[in-house]
Target: Dynein axonemal assembly factor 4
Amino acid sequence: MPLWLREHRWRQSLTAVFLSLPVPGARATPGSIFCTERYLKVSVPPFLFEAILYAPIDDTNSTAKIENGNIFFTLYKKEPAMWDSLTLENVDKEKLQYLRENAVLTAHEKAKEEREAKKVTKEEHKKYALEATMKLEEAERKRIEDLKEEERQKVTEELELWKNQQKDADNYKSIQKEQELHQEIGQLKERKNETMNKTRIPNEGISKTKYKPTKGHGSYSMFSQNLKEEQLPAPRSAATIKVSFTPRVFPTALRESRVPEEEEWLHKQAEARRTVSADLSELEDLREEERNPDWLKDKGNKMFAMGNYLAAVNAYNLAVRLNNRLPLLYLNRAACHLKLRNLHKAIEDSSKALELLTPPVRDNEKARVKAYVRRGTAFCQLELYTEGLQDYEAALKIDPKNKDIEKDAEKIRHLIQGTMQGS
Model:
């Protein structure tokens, strides 16, 4: 049977009521106090205090302070007035029961409204965080594109300048070759004239008949040789050789490529694009590159590093909807749930990651160790130490040299032993 608290002191002003309630030897907590507009209840075992207030109060702004075995209430009146007494007098049991039930219903409705308001606020915060993240990514992308465009223009201008310089150099070489050709032709003509003069002078002193050119072989060959020297070939004209290459998806040459690996990569990309084209209302406003699970995973990792765990969970959730066969998505989301104290969800994601990390090979050892440790941590925080110890021991089998995991497992063993001794 509870002990009813009859002793209390109260005083009032025009706008507030000050109530002092002694609870000797009992430990009062904020959960021991229940207050509405007309109903005040304090339950501190073995003591109980219940009062139907004289007039309505503002229960939202009213306060209670627990100090030295006393509870001090400051109750603000809804309407400024002086009360005749603290409680209603001569209240029968039926009216008391009605007021009590009405107070409980009112408190439940108010709590429900507050939960709904918190839920709406939480959704708005999530939406705002996602929009802010998208804006940051868009600004960063635009900055990178602007830098690329500047570099492209700079390279184009340098290429045009180089082409003009090459063209001027070719023209200069052509003019120089023409000048050299004219010089060679002039020198040949001078040598021809000198040869003819030398031949003509001795013939004049011997005989005039020998002066005339004959149709003999020697005379014809001499002049034909001079004519051949004059008929030099023209300089070759400049031309451009066009080279065509076989079109390829990858920038490397075919001799340097690995065809099976490239085909596997192209197959995965095609499967990812088919997945992205699914009818998801969340993707209507996203760009093509933002519908990539790998891009969403990287964004979730950035949000986790910044401490924005809710935004990271949203990114991983969307990535999982796009591709539910990537174990790292579940593993990273489990880490976020641990930070947010969503322990059951952390256990589910860690278990799903372990399910996808099959068969167990050396390449996925680190991922499996993380999955076991995160699931074991969630179990221990739920005070399921036996299950947590099993996961830590499974992680130690994979990585027996990890001293941190061994220390944590030893702590869990001590906790289990202490629990068994206490029971």
Summary: Confidence is low (pLDDT under 50) at residues 201-220.
